[in-house]
Design a protein that fits this description.
heterotrimer; A mainly alpha (168); B mainly alpha (118); C mainly alpha (341); A: 168 residues; mainly alpha; 0% strand; globular; B: mainly alpha; Methane Monooxygenase Hydroxylase, Chain G, domain 1
Chain lengths: 168, 118, 341
């Protein structure tokens, strides 16, 4: 039953992810990215990570993509600008990136082949609920949590400095 | 746990059907009498003089950035609001420090005029 | 024969119940919208010392239906320079998110049918409140896409303005709802209603209630925060280029959001289906409270003039956001240091 939901969801997510890359217009890419994030949220729900799924929607699809949309709206997009320009490809950089990605993929496959997929780990009933995630966040990971606030502060200051600086 | 989503998932499908169905129905049912002038963008009877894609105030961008930051903050607060009993005073202090740092940020934005819409 | 069918269906009861509930919610919502439009026009008429629509059908009730049919058969103009796909997608997104949001709203105690407990909700989620915030925050893309795809400066400006408005007030909405979470200790809307069996949270959490209500009005783009429809300044904001049913779909989304918001306020602050006076038909109590809130929404529209855009943003960021932060901090400090100490 879960697979019946998982496969269409995963398929749509992957197709949308491809559209993000191959779409001609930035707006279209952004819309596909939102769709892909919603698909990912669905996958998170299937993995019992309910809180994470909601975070995925609220923070990524809800907040960050709004910023993307605003930037697209704010940029002065003329008709010929709305199409991606095909830049001259740097063969060396492209192939280096390709090799890197293949290496990472190989490592991931290498690690996961040892895992037994036929007997999936049973998760506790309260796995992925707000309580469990919160308990971990506020007891074991206090420091990262507090550091996150400083990160947010830095972003706030940075945004204001950029937006409010006078161009002389 | 997953069963609790059944209703939402089915309503999701129904809502998709309704939304798509309405758009399709109105496209099919409505008359189509098109001519060039009618297909122009609306501009109070004139033809469009300037491109709609003007540069907008950077304030909107600032609002979006601030929204992300405070949204993340609010999202952190929700698990804390459920767990505060278990965490007790330690949790309260922890959250106060978190909010204090962000409060300083809000004050800074305020003083620098990031919230002004003159 | 019937036994065979029942036996075959036995493992799928949850699915059948889910489908029936979803269909009832969808049909209920879609049929409430014309009624709400009628109610608003009649009430607005009375507020302005006129009659309002009263010709079509008894009390003018047929008016909304007639309008819906008329709109369905109107021509859809998609101006030639618009981005066709996104132009069609935008109203669909608005209606879609509005309907899905409602799925997590509970409106009564579960009842028993043939040994199966059937809850009066689309989905009883442990993270119901966050689910509603998450899905309703997707509605903003309807506005953004309508503004972006129309290729019209009024649409673009309107879309930008309304989306900035919506994200600004979303923060206050979340922070004031946090006070309720603090009191009830749960994100499950059913549990939140249960925890109010003695007293609705509107009394102990009055500041949060006021903040939530103001932010809720702004979130649903209702007057006095109806900048998206500022006809005088922005022609018609982000749906300038829309006509026919697609135009109406934006309003449909708005009215469904209004119902959802009223239901959410009822659940979070007004005690849901608890009547407190011994009236014991939960669903009627709930419907009555939602109805009252909807009337207040309409009352607000006919009372207040539209707020200016810069004031709107300053109000959201400089008054509502700090106030809701302080309110939330005060309640959490009181809760930890005084009540639980």
């Amino acid at each position: 039953m879960e697979l019946l939901i998982f496969y269409p969801l995963a398929l749509v997510s992957v197709i949308l992810a491809l559209f993000v890359v191959f779409n001609k217009s930035p707006i279209g890419s952004a819309v596909c990215l939102i769709g892909m994030m919603l698909g990912l949220a669905g996958v998170f729900i299937l993995l019992q990570a309910h809180f994470l799924a909601i975070l995925q929607i609220i923070v990524y699809a809800g907040a960050i993509m709004v910023l993307f949309m605003f930037v697209i709206m704010l940029l002065n997009l003329k008709d010929d600008d709305t199409k991606w320009k095909i830049r001259e490809r740097n063969i060396f950089l492209s192939s280096a990136t390709g090799v890197l990605i293949v290496g990472i993929l190989y490592k991931i496959i290498d690690v996961t082949t040892d895992t037994k997929f036929d007997s999936p780990a049973t998760v506790p009933d309260n796995f992925g609920t707000v309580e469990v995630v919160g308990t971990a966040l506020f007891t074991d990971f206090v420091l990262p949590f507090e550091v996150a606030s400083i990160l947010l502060l830095a972003a706030m200051v940075g945004a204001v400095v950029l937006a409010k600086s006078k161009v002389d | 746990m997953l069963e609790s989503y059944t209703g939402a998932a089915i309503l999701l499908l129904i809502a998709t059907a309704i939304a798509v169905g309405m758009v399709v129905a109105t496209t099919i049912l409505g008359p189509k009498r098109q001519f060039a002038d009618k297909m122009e963008p609306f501009e109070c009877g004139e033809s469009q003089l300037v491109s709609p894609y003007q540069r907008f105030s950077v304030k909107f961008y600032l609002v979006a950035v601030l929204f992300i930051l405070f949204d993340i903050e609010a999202v952190f607060l929700f698990p804390w609001a459920i767990l505060y009993k278990k965490l007790g005073l330690f949790g309260l202090i922890e959250m106060m420090v978190f909010l204090l740092i962000l409060g300083v940020g809000l004050m800074y934005v305020w003083i620098r005029g990031g919230l002004d819409w003159e | 024969m019937i036994d065979d069918i029942l036996n075959f269906l036995d493992p799928y009861w949850w699915l059948i119940i889910g489908v029936v509930k979803a269909v009832i919610i969808a049909v209920g919502l879609l049929s409430t919208v014309p009624l709400l439009v009628w109610l608003e026009r009649r009430l607005m008429g009375r507020f302005q010392v006129r009659l309002g629509p009263n010709r079509v059908g008894p009390l003018g009730l047929g008016q909304a239906l007639a309008d819906a049919i008329k709109l369905l058969f109107k021509e859809n103009i998609v101006q030639s320079s618009a981005d066709k796909f996104l132009f069609y997608l935008a109203p669909a997104v608005v209606v879609f998110t509005a309907i899905v949001t409602f799925s997590a709203i509970p409106f009564g105690e579960p009842f028993e049918v043939g040994g199966e407990s059937i809850g009066l909700w689309g989905a009883n989620l442990n993270i119901g409140l966050l689910f509603i915030f998450a899905v309703s925050s997707m509605g903003i893309y309807g506005i953004v896409l309508a503004g972006l795809s129309s290729n019209n400066k009024y649409s673009l400006m309107g879309g930008l303005r309304s989306s900035a408005q919506m994200i600004s007030y979303e923060l206050t909405l979340g922070l004031s709802a946090l006070c309720v979470v603090l009191m009830s200790g749960s994100l499950n809307l059913y549990d939140i209603v249960k925890s109010q069996s003695d007293m609705p949270y509107a009394i102990p959490l009055f500041p949060a209630f006021v903040l939530f209500f103001i932010a809720g009005v702004a979130e649903t783009n209702r007057a006095p925060f109806d900048l998206p429809e500022a006809e005088q300044e922005l022609v018609a904001g982000f749906f300038t280029e829309y006509s026919g049913m697609k135009f109406a779909m934006f309003f449909m989304g708005e009215y469904i959001n209004m119902i959802t918001m009223s239901a959410l306020i009822t659940i979070l602050f007004l005690g849901g289906w608890n009547s407190y006076i011994g009236f014991d038909i939960p669903i009627l109590v709930f419907a009555f409270k939602v109805f009252l809130l909807l009337c207040v929404f309409i009352w607000l529209r006919s009372t207040f003039p539209r707020i200016r855009y810069d004031r709107l943003m300053t109000f959201g960021w400089k008054i509502l956001l700090p106030t809701s932060l302080v309110t939330m901090l005060a309640y959490s400090a009181i809760k930890v240091l005084v009540i639980d100490a």
